Amino acid sequence: MSDETAGNEIENRFGYLLKHVQSRYQQLAGAALEQLGIDGKQWAVLVTIGSGEELSQQEAANALGIDRTTMVALVDGLEDKGLARRSRHPEDRRKNIVELTTDGRRTLERARKKVAAAEQTFFAPLSSPDIDKFKTALRALLRGDEQGRYE
Amino acid sequence: MSDETAGNEIENRFGYLLKHVQSRYQQLAGAALEQLGIDGKQWAVLVTIGSGEELSQQEAANALGIDRTTMVALVDGLEDKGLARRSRHPEDRRKNIVELTTDGRRTLERARKKVAAAEQTFFAPLSSPDIDKFKTALRALLRGDEQGRYE
DNA sequence: TATTGTTATACTCTATAACTATA
DNA sequence: TATAGTTATAGAGTATAACAATA
User: Fold this and answer.
1) Ranges of each domain in chain A
2) Rounded CA gap, B130 and B148, in Å?
3) Separation between the CA of A3 and the C1’ of C20 (whole angstroms)
4) Which of A37, A93, B48, B91 has the most CB atoms around it within 10 Å of its CB?
5) Residue B9 above 90 pLDDT?
6) Can you tell me the distance from the alpha carbon of B110 to that of B113, in angstroms, rounded to the nearest whole number?
7) Which CATH number fits domain A3-137: 1.10.443.10, 3.40.710.10, 3.50.50.60, 1.10.10.10?
8) CB-proximal positions of chain D, under 7 Å
9) pLDDT tens figures, A88-119
10) CA B43, C1' C19: Å apart?
């Protein structure tokens, strides 16, 4: 607090903090995933379709909160890399089931480790209990209700 | 933990949490600012040029971490609304000093209150001490060093 | 008629390159 | 030569509209 400057107010704006913290996280996670030849969005798709449930493209898109038209190119990219596979749903031939290939499963596991390592770097400034509190707070803020409140 | 579903892993991914929490914040703050006819970026510019220091366009851009070419349209918009004013720097005529008009100052103060109210809504799921801890954690994570660590 | 995947298209956001004026 | 502001342009990212296949 001793060297307060004009920039201080800007940098303490909550919107600024959130934006730049997210930017730092994406940078770290992105660099980790780059070693496996995928980006953050593709990683999110891998996690989604590797979750155990059989998902159509649209269901996977919904789970990620993106448009089904956006999902097309994402799955294209993963298919080109040999990490995911499309197949017709046997009972509803309009749907594409999207699933991991063997390579995709292997990449997913490697990516988990890379991302976990990146998160360790990201969270280095916080103690273990503070990391837990931080994540709990995020989940409560996302729900937007008062379930997480205990004062 | 009783109704664990496939979506659970996705929604607990840290990247997902951060992205959607930011999205919720922007939605709330954006809706608050919309009542004053400005958006989040214009609000950030108002805060910057209202900080007390005399700033050129480029200096304001740097303070916000955006490009000087992007700043042009932002200042254009604020000038059109009568909230900001360009004037030549007396000692270096290449520079534009950007400052608030009387209306701009008034809008800035109104916006402060609107944003504060929006943040109150945003943070409703957390207790007061938890809000402080959350903000402290964000600042530590942004610095990226271990200054905030005390375990 | 409605839905899924797809394509084409448009829109937003932002950065890069090039120009003008000033230094 | 270098810098500040500006403009034109291009690229990434994503959404909307329209179409084919299927329900």
Assistant:
1) 3-137
2) 16
3) 39
4) B48
5) no
6) 5
7) 1.10.10.10
8) 3-8, 14-18, 21-23
9) 999 999 999 999 999 999 999 999 999 999 99
10) 30
